[in-house]
Amino acid sequence: MKAALVFLLSVVAVTTSLQALAEELPRDEESEPLVLVRIIPMPSAKGRIDHMAVDTASGRVFAAVYGSDTLDVVDVHRAREVAVLRTGLNEPQGIAFVPTSGRIVVSNSGDGSCAIFNDGNYQHLGSVSFSDDADQLRYDPSSQRIFVGYGDGAIGIIDTRTWKLIPDQFQLGAHPESFQLDEAGHRLFVNLVSKSVVAVIHLDTRRIDQWKLTDAGTNFPMTLDVFNKRVFVAARRPARLLVLDMDSGKQIASLPGAADTDDMWYDRTRRRIYVPSGEGFIFVYLQIDSDHYERIAKIPTAIGARTSAYFGQVGKHNSLYLAVPGRSGRGAELWVFETRD
Fold this sequence. Notes:
By secondary structure, the protein is mainly beta. The protein contains 1 helix and 28 strands.
């Protein structure tokens, strides 16, 4: 009996040790939905890095560096900064790249202007001014217009054929954060953070609807699944991923989410939603079908890394570019993730 008990205790001890060892072993990164493949230094970037844009043809990433009043241009193929622009920038926040005219447009929180640069030689060509706090930008190639969120609550429009301000603007009653364009439906979906509302602008009729969020608020980032008619919103308080019907505003799903978010992306090919968080993770959700979702991964990153861009398919992979601000003993960086199927 005593020998049997000793043998049983030995088996339990070995099993426990194996389990502990398994927990200590590194995860198989290739099985993750996103894999970090490159880290590119951004030595000129100081302080907060705001939104980014990508030129897929040349492999460049444009980053609005709010903290140093610069537009930093990173060549991903050569893994280095290739230009740092300063003229006309005052607390830059958003970027629109217009490939057809070779222009880069950068919005400024400090003075409300949108600076325009030549894409080839990076020359500052002028600016279009709004009243205050120009923020996020969206380029609509079909109408050749850039929509600009600004001030205490408005969306303005720049005509990229003339580079003039179009008099039409949409009054919203609260500062717009992330907004997304439904090109087919001629609608803008706009996050109004201070009101915990999603505003829907019907561009053809100018009607504006407002959907009040019930499960959570402080809704900064947004992305769309136009095919399945879904609006995805990441709320901070409390931290939730909200899924809304694109036509009615009805809440379809609500899942635990990230608390410090500023960008999010929908990958239709893989039916995934990527939500970078300043907490130091990228939350990854799987769209089981249009009504059902689950979180499938929480990819470690760095504290404060909340802004990103998701473009540029190369082969069978897509790239997610994550802006990582400088921290103690280490400068700012651009982290390049690739998707895995």
